[in-house]
Every structure is written in C-alpha cells, then in structure tokens.
Fold each of these.
Amino acid sequence: MREKELRRHMAVFPIGSVMTLTDLTARQIRYYEEQGLILPKRSKGNRRLYSLNDMDRLLEIKDFLDEGLNMAAIKAHYAQEKPVSTRSKSKKPLSDADVRQILHDDLLRQGRFNQPTQHLGGHRLGR
C-alpha cells in the first residue's frame, strides 16, 4: 500500500474533530458505528479514533441520507462493496509470471494478435 493510502487509514481523529469536519453529532456517528457502517479504532484508553477514510464514509452516508436513501439501502450499498475487498485480500499476490500470463490471455481474447494475417507481395499485413 502506498504511503498516501496508509495515511488515509491511520486512525488519529477524536470524535470531536470528526463532528466538526462532518457536521454530524456524536450520537449520529455512534449510530452509524452500531449499524456497522464505520469501524473506528480504539485508543489505549478506549476512545474512538477515526481515519480520513472513516470521515469520507460518514460524509458519503450523509449524502445518501440527503438523497432520500434509508439505512437499509445504505447498508445494502456497502454490503455489495465488502466482497470485493475481502476477496482481493484472500487471494495470494500475483507473481510476474502470473501477470505476464494474464496480459497474454487478455491480448489473445481481444483477438488482436490471434487473427490470421494476409500476405501481399511479400509483405505481411494484419487484417
């Protein structure tokens, strides 16, 4: 993961800062946590700490609610995203050979290099 992305995942903001930046109440933020929409980290003193990604999610939830979505629809939206992220984490990393094979297969599937060529006057021309 790149440094920028690592920093976005760092949980460093207390709930007061999140309230100021998102214009949400502590009660709303805790409710979204209860609903499983955000999962703040906890400090050694058991205080909630939020990341930039958590704040992005809270602002997105706020937008969804403003658009008229209910909590069930918002949960369904995020439930669809989870399988993608958990699936990518469970896969083993690709080796260089794997990447080359995938690229080769994609090129063949596109048909670009899999088509027969025509010969014209000793010159080879693609279709």
Note: Strands lie at 13-14, 41-42, 48-50, 118-120, 123-125.
Amino acid sequence: MEEVLHTGHCLCGAVRFRTRGPLREVIACHCSQCRRQTGHFYAATNARDDHLEVEGSDNVTWYRASEMAARGFCKTCGSALFWKGDGSDTTSIMAGAFDKPTGFEISLHIYCADKGDYYDLDDGLPQYEGNYR
C-alpha cells in the first residue's frame, strides 16, 4: 500500500510542510477568531504531529488567541497555517496552504452561530452552532 503524502507552504515559501499518512476531513470553522485571523472562515484538516514535518519552523510565529490553543502563521508573509490545541497530538493545517491536487472536501461547519453576516451556508453539509463533539 502506497503512503499518502501531501505538501504545502505559506505564500512566500519561508515555511514549507509535508504530511504523511491519512488526514482528517476538512472542517470549516466560522468562529470570530478564525474569521478575524483569515478574513473569512477557517477550513482545515489535521495531521498527527509525528506525521507532520515543517521546514522553516523558525519562521512560524505562534499566537495564543485563547486559553486552549495557539495559532501558527508565517512571520514573513502572515499566512495562517496551523492551529494547535493544548495537549493534542495533532496539528490542524489550513486546507488552502496545501499544494494541489489535495483531494480534500469540506465535511461540516462548526461555530455557525458566530459566522459572518455577509455569507450564507447553503452547501447542504452538517452545521453545528458550536463544536461538533
């Protein structure tokens, strides 16, 4: 069986990453923190930490927007790249930072009660007011 590999990078290329193995489905988060960080909603998959390699990690700045997680972005170009929950053995990675073809599809929407008022969610996917767990 062939191992699944995905690659990606920030806008300027100072941070590059590679994942191996299966990734979680893409989840769209509509909370105010994700919207403010990205300018829209956050769509991310995640990888086990031992399956994620980051080249240029000294160019990643981590910002704690809450008491439960940190957000990683490129300190050169500002690209939002990662979200890391405290104590988790996985890292969320922005779906848009991956090189094509990804084969990804958004599977559900979370924090819809906090979504922006300038767009509708009418794709027929499951929607949760808060987190889905």
Note: The chain has a mean pLDDT of 96.
